Amino acid sequence: MTHSPVTPYHLDTRLVHEGQTRTPYGETSEALFLTQGFIYENAETAERRFLNEEQGYSYTRYTNPTTTMFEERMAALEGAEAAQATATGMAAVTVAMMGQVQAGDHVVAARALFGSCRWIVEDLFPRFGVGSTLVDGPDLDAWRRAVRPETKAFLLETPSNPSLEIIDIAGVAAIAHQAGATLTVDNVFATPLFQKPLALGADCVVYSATKHIDGQGRCLGGVILGSRDFIETKVQQFLRMTGPSISPFNAWVLLKGLETLSLRVERQTATAGFLADTLHDHPKVRRLTYPGRPDHPQAALIARQMTGGSTMIALDVQNGKAGAFRFMNALKLIRISNNLGDAKSLVTHPATTTHQRFSPELRGEMGITDGLVRLSVGLEHRDDLLADLARALDEV
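RE: above sequence
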């Protein structure tokens, strides 16, 4: 099998061709290797593979040719030295963080996290003797105050889910490194097209590839990216021993998703910007937050660290939960789902779904009101989406 590097080309070209390993049959599309194991020419070869003295494949739980192609393409997109695919986005977060800590260590994380990510920090870590502190993410002094001698890792997501809060990646990375800690960034909402955490000083980036990377509601997947040393020392052994590996079929589906990622996300972002501008002053909307608008509270920071807005809009509609439910139930084109980044426009009510386990007080600290609706903008015509949203807002 041969691999043709395409490094000199533009990103859109690399999203189609990078990580293309062809068999002697010369297939156009990436080959799908649906196999659990591999055959060795002799016992000596098997021994060398397991000692990592010889390149090659031994077991798909460890790696697989199709999975390797997805990892290489993601690394090229992110500007990372290495990548490790996982079964889901939450597997990516769990492996990335658990691989960095042990009993007695301490983690600092932003308060505004996806519900499952916060569960890892608040509930899972303490079971294994890892302490944690949650901070107000945009407040750099809060990160500094939270550092302890045993602090080993920082975790944040920006823009945050679902309030679209922005955190200064470079600023937090500097604090982490001064403390001898690492920074992991969940970059799902920005996508690798609009934000490059590694270039801003982060040590690790994680994605739920289920979202924009697939973007068509077909499969689950995740990916961890960083330096080769980070992936090899913090991630690979943990994943190989515990097993949250991606299916080769899912890796193949995600490879096909990457081919159209820039087309989809750019179109979705343009539509999201149009909808945000049009609905911002709607009388039934108490507050609208969108990273591409100049009235975002952190617009100056967004201009420094992001090159585009987002496919996501946060709408706080009137009359709390009742108003939010009336609005969502009145939608005809846009569907209710807890997923995001899809070709189809989707809405969810975070207070009763993704963040329902938190008390109203904790949700308030994360910017999640009873009237907040998270809108993931899809590929439908913008006028059709606007008409659907305007008609539903009339019902609030």
